[in-house]
């Protein structure tokens, strides 16, 4: 049994807890949260041992690994303390408020030799995994241009403020929403390392951006557009998509449907010249416990297997999330010019 | 329960395979009259049960149904609560405590949040009961013989080991609404064990069941085994497996499974509705004839 503790039982934290609770190889040894009502309910109905001080929890419960799902501004301090104690860490995205903090944690994790993972769940979505495989095998030739997009109805009117509306806590559309798209592009194509121009626009929020538009370049020489808006109520829920144009074809994919066009006759197995359509249902492996998408269960299962040293722990590492933080900061800095 | 039940995903742009189709549905069903028109097609095809989420727009549909008691005399609704995105978006915006403040009627929650009230277990079950009442308001005067808890909530509670809420839901729905409790889940085998342990025998469970092995946690074979044991009344949903297999083949598979009492499906066009109903009836008839022959 892998002994797991969790810090921050908010929306993502509860989702993680539920999936962890159902995992056959996991024992939940502690939950830390500052909300009295959450702690009360978890203790009473789930029987979890709860804490309000995460260091006390770590000391008493002696977990093999800790899930960190608190607002981004706390990631750096908490993860650092956990690494000091040689504990395996899964943390929510985005990794840190700035790439200096995340860079330091990458080094610390390496030194500690612990398993480290960040919750960019899109990498466990069947369609995006297939996009990555196609691009890596040069199936559509050399990548010339891409478009990474995400739209959804998070902030659709002027309303009360939470940590998501505070820039110093890691709020805003760039950090919270666009980070998914940036991370996906970094992983599928190559890290975004230049930003020619960017616009961070507030629509309903007072202090943070509600949309992000940027013209960027990757280390492989491809250029692209990032277009993200979390104030778009024409979407029922978050919809993330990538369009990738190559010299030999084109890929258009979201989390449900993958469309690929091949120009020539050199084709990967299972594809034909012209348009091909594949659905996530064909590209998804069954999970043992389903909560809100196979990818959420799959990323946790991957982490648990990493802790048990049953896989390589090379998906969503601190290192990849540090690169994403670096790309985020490029876009942020460019918008100020 | 009727053999065929009509679902509502198509009305609310829920499409598991295509965002484009989802947008097209959103445009098609912009007006409530388009929803009613499609429901009438389903009724004409012999389906009298509509299983729907407690989406705000369903309130309008209920209003139309209430106004025409003669036409909708045999019509039943199976409400499914809560409409998860409403709460998920609220939690993102206001946090968990803020969401509870917004959606739990009355003000006794306020005193709990402030910590001024002694915490007794019953309080949280009562909060759930208040939330059930809030979701049920729109169905006043409509026949709702089965009331469901949505899979996101069922499975969240299941993973957290909060069985008491699942049992509490069942008890309250029976007692207050004189209805059968139903559970939607993506984890049928695991849920059934928990419900049986909580004293609920032969529960109504609606789960993803299809030939494609789509969203059948633990795998199709385990599901088939549990079905063959006849321990629950099953409504099969996502029978087309997200569109991965041809419709006729998909319906043949699910129609012939043992102990699947009902099949839930949704469709937008008259042709698709009629075809699906005819296909299920065809396989059901075929099976009956085979039984007689034996």
From TrEMBL, chain A:
Name-wise, this protein is Gfo/Idh/MocA family oxidoreductase
For this protein, the record's InterPro entries field holds: Gfo/Idh/MocA-like_OxRdtase_N (IPR000683), Gfo/Idh/MocA_Oxidoreductases (IPR051450), GFO_IDH_MocA-like_dom (IPR055170), NAD(P)-bd_dom_sf (IPR036291)
Organism name: Algoriphagus aestuariicola
UniProt xrefs under SUPFAM superfamilies:
Glyceraldehyde-3-phosphate dehydrogenase-like, C-terminal domain, NAD(P)-binding Rossmann-fold domains
Domain GFO/IDH/MocA-like oxidoreductase stretches: 128-251
The record places domain Gfo/Idh/MocA-like oxidoreductase N-terminal at 2-120
Automatic annotation (TrEMBL), chain B:
Tell me the organism. Algoriphagus aestuariicola
Q: What is the protein's name according to its record?
A: Uncharacterized protein
Q: From what superkingdom does this record's organism come?
A: Bacteria
């Amino acid at each position: 049994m892998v002994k797991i503790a969790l810090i921050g039982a908010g929306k993502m934290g509860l989702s993680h807890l539920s999936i962890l609770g159902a995992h056959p190889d996991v024992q939940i040894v502690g939950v830390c949260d500052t909300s009295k009502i959450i702690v009360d309910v978890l203790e009473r109905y789930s029987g979890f041992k709860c804490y309000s001080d995460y260091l006390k929890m770590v000391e008493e419960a002696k977990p093999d690994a800790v899930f960190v799902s608190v607002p981004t501004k706390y990631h750096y301090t908490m993860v650092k303390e956990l690494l000091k104690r040689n504990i395996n860490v899964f943390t929510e995205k985005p990794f840190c408020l700035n790439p200096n903090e995340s860079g330091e944690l990458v080094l610390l994790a390496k030194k500690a030799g612990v398993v480290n993972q960040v919750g960019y769940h899109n990498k466990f979505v069947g369609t995006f995994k297939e996009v990555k495989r196609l691009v890596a095998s040069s199936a559509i030739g050399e990548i010339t241009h891409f478009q990474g997009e995400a739209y959804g109805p998070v902030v659709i009117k002027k309303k009360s403020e939470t940590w998501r509306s505070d820039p110093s806590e890691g709020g805003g559309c760039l950090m919270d929403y666009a980070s998914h798209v940036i991370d996906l592009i970094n992983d599928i194509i190559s890290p975004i390392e230049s930003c020619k121009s960017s616009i961070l626009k507030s629509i309903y929020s007072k202090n943070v951006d509600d949309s992000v538009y940027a013209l960027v370049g990757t280390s492989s020489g491809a250029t692209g557009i990032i277009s993200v808006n979390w104030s778009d109520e024409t979407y029922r829920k978050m919809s993330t998509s990538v369009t990738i144009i190559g010299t030999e074809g084109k890929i258009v994919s979201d989390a449900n449907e993958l469309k690929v066009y091949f120009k020539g006759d050199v084709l990967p197995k299972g594809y034909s010249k012209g348009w091909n359509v594949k659905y996530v249902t064909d590209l998804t492996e069954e999970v043992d416990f389903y909560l809100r998408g196979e990818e959420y269960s799959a990323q946790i299962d991957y982490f648990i297997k990493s802790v048990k040293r049953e896989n390589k722990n090379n998906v969503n590492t601190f290192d990849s999330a540090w690169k994403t933080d670096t790309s985020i900061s490029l876009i942020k800095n460019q918008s100020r010019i | 329960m009727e053999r065929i039940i009509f679902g509502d995903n198509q009305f609310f742009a829920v499409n598991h395979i295509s965002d484009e189709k989802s947008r097209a549905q959103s445009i098609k069903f912009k007006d409530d009259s388009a929803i009613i028109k499609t429901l009438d097609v389903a009724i004409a095809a012999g389906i009298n049960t509509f299983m729907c989420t407690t989406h705000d727009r369903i309130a309008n549909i209920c209003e139309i149904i209430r106004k025409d008691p003669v036409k909708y005399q045999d019509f039943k609704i199976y409400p499914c609560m809560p409409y998860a995105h409403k709460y998920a978006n609220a939690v993102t915006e206001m946090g968990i405590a803020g969401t509870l403040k917004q959606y739990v009627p009355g003000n006794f929650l306020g005193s709990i949040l402030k910590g001024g009230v002694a915490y007794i277990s019953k309080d949280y079950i009562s909060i759930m009961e208040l939330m059930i009442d809030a979701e049920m308001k729109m169905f006043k005067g409509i026949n709702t013989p089965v009331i469901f808890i949505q899979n996101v909530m069922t499975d969240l509670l299941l993973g957290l080991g909060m069985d008491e809420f699942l049992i509490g839901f069942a008890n309250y729905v029976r007692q207050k609404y004189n209805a059968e409790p139903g559970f939607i889940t993506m984890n049928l085998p695991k849920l059934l064990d928990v419900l049986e342990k909580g004293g609920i025998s032969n529960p109504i469970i609606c789960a993803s069941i299809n030939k494609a092995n789509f969203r059948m946690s633990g795998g199709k074979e385990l599901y088939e085994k549990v079905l063959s044991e006849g321990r629950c009344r099953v409504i099969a949903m996502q029978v087309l497996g997200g569109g991965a297999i041809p419709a006729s083949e998909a319906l043949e598979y699910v129609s012939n499974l043992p102990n699947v009492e009902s099949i839930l499906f949704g469709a937008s066009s008259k042709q698709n509705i009629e075809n699906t109903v005819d296909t299920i009836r065809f396989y059901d008839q075929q099976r009956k004839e085979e039984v007689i022959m034996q």
